[in-house]
Q: What sequence folds into this?
């Protein structure tokens, strides 16, 4: 264990002046501009912003699927810069649980086998792996659906399988990109309830959303606009700022 990992007051992750640029022919796209923030163990943070504001770019960096063009990203005190693809995927396997909007489950494989997969990559033995996957599915309320394939499950149940898969390897951080984006509002609320339970149990969660109502439920929200942080504070305050702006825009449209 490094000195930073042993220090409970040290941030779990830290971005320091992080920029991510994409080059498209002769054009340079500034997807993130000098983003800096820290997240401590046990926090539950929403990242909110309009389409194209840089949310997925940020989440991909946090999840070690990508590296910054500029600036430093430290995960448990370790600078991710300069790590090669193998080292990055190793770090990802150990530290990160990713939940995608479109679930990304293997279609011809049961819920149990889908959840087990990250443990296969870790080289865990079969019986231990089964047991851990079973426990993760029970935790998300799917104890009775373990042998169903994705097409034999509802959308909300599929998202629960994806959450169980992210959870089963006991990652340091859960990252979720619009996890309720493909669900009806009732099912979406159930999934948010599940995140709240996981947070209460001590998990660190970072969730991307474009809905102020979701950000309002999170203890902390970070709002991105055009690749920059424009507000970092309690979820309810950040959400109120967005609503306030929407009202101002509507009022202007009426008076015009
Ligand atoms: N691989 C890429 N190559 C070039 N430009 C990219 C690439 N990925 C993202 N971008 C650009 O970077 C900006 C931020 O994209 P990003 O996907 O992070 O937005 P987002 O906030 O997640 O949006 P959405 O809510 O629509 O998912 C956008 O302008 C996008 O076009
Ligand atoms: Mg996105």
A:
């Amino acid at each position: 264990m490094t000195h930073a990992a042993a220090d409970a007051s040290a941030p779990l992750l830290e971005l320091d002046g992080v920029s991510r640029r994409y080059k498209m022919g002769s054009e340079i796209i500034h997807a993130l501009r000098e983003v800096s923030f820290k997240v401590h163990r046990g926090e539950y943070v929403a990242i909110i912003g309009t389409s194209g504001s840089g949310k997925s770019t940020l989440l991909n960096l946090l999840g070690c699927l990508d590296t910054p063009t500029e600036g430093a990203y430290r995960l448990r005190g370790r600078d991710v810069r300069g790590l090669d693809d193998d080292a990055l995927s190793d770090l990802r396997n150990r530290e990160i649980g990713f939940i995608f909007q479109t679930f990304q489950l293997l279609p011809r494989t049961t819920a149990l086998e889908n959840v087990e997969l990250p443990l296969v990559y870790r080289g865990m033995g079969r019986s231990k792996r089964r047991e851990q996957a079973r426990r993760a599915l029970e935790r998300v309320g799917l104890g009775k659906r373990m042998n169903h394939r994705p097409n034999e499950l509802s959308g909300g149940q599929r998202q629960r399988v994806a959450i169980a898969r992210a959870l089963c390897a006991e990652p340091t951080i859960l990252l979720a990109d619009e996890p309720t984006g493909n669900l009806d509002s009732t099912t979406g609320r159930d999934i948010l309830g599940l995140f709240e339970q996981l947070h209460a149990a001590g998990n660190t969660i970072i969730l991307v959303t474009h809905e102020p109502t979701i950000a309002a439920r999170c203890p902390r929200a970070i709002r991105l606009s055009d690749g920059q942080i424009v507000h970092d504070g309690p979820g309810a305050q950040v959400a109120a700022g967005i609503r306030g702006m929407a009202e101002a825009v509507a009022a202007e449209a009426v008076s015009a």
